[in-house]
Amino acid sequence: MEFREILARRRMQRAFLPDPLPPDQIERVVGVIRRAPSGGFSQGGSIVVVTDDQKRAEIAAAFGDEHYSRGGRNYIADAPVLLVLSANEALYHARYNEADKLAATGGTEVTWPVPYWFVDAGALMMLVLLAAIDEGLASAFVGHPEQKRIFGELLGLPDDVVPIGLALIGKPGEDPPSGSRLKERQRARDDLVHWQRW
Ligand SMILES: Cc1cc2nc3c(=O)[nH]c(=O)nc-3n(C[C@H](O)[C@H](O)[C@H](O)COP(=O)(O)O)c2cc1C
User: Fold this and answer.
1) Where would I find the beta strands (DSSP E) of the chain?
2) How many structural domains compose the chain?
3) What is the CATH classification number for the domain harbouring 108?
């Protein structure tokens, strides 16, 4: 699929068909992690793939799926593939304390302009969501204030692995009308893109 076509289809899908996806298709989607950029090539992003019915139901329940679900259909629980995307800050500190990096920064760890581990995890999220669309599937991303505890308890995420959220992948179901993406909420392009200077 052409990039512009993928981009035109890019949206947070609000309903999924529960049909399971073939493992090789899931592998292709999560395989984009190998193409994801990372500061200093720290490779701090990670994915936990959850297809197990029971586990998906547990995650959906912990995320309060009932608040999303409409018309007798589930939202999170129906998506056949749930991907927990995480960042690992410790890997960045380790990488930026290696000799080549310290040589460039005068012997002390770089001053982080922003937390690159979350920047990179966000970039990974976008790659995964677009890769799903490229497969003819649909995708979405949701978060929960307690997601660190939830995925620690349900999936055994280690302490230093911080989930940024949950990607939902599957065949598109019939979407309810858009809520947060209403046209009148859209900010003017000139407020978003600045030429030459702010
Ligand atoms: C970091 C991030 C967190 C989000 N968290 C949620 C969420 O918890 N629940 C939800 O329904 N949508 C969530 N969304 C989806 C946004 O609501 C959605 O991207 C936005 O309304 C624009 O719609 P679109 O992505 O379909 O263009 C999240 C999106 C991002 C990028």
Assistant:
1) 46-50, 81-87, 138-142, 162-170
2) 1
3) 3.40.109.10
- C-alpha distances in angstroms, 197 versus 98, 100, 117, 190? 36, 34, 28, 12
Cα separation, 16 vs 32, whole angstroms: 22
To test the pocket of ligand 1, the residue of 74, 124, 141 to mutate (highest count of ligand atoms within 8 Å of its CB) is 141
What is the Cα gyration radius of the chain?
19
User: What global pTM score does this model have?
Assistant: 0.96
User: Is residue 79 a contact partner of residue 55, using CB atoms and an 8 Å limit?
Assistant: no
Pocket test for ligand 1, best of 180, 182, 187 (most atoms within 8 A of CB): 180
pLDDT tens for each residue of 1-12 = 999 999 999 999
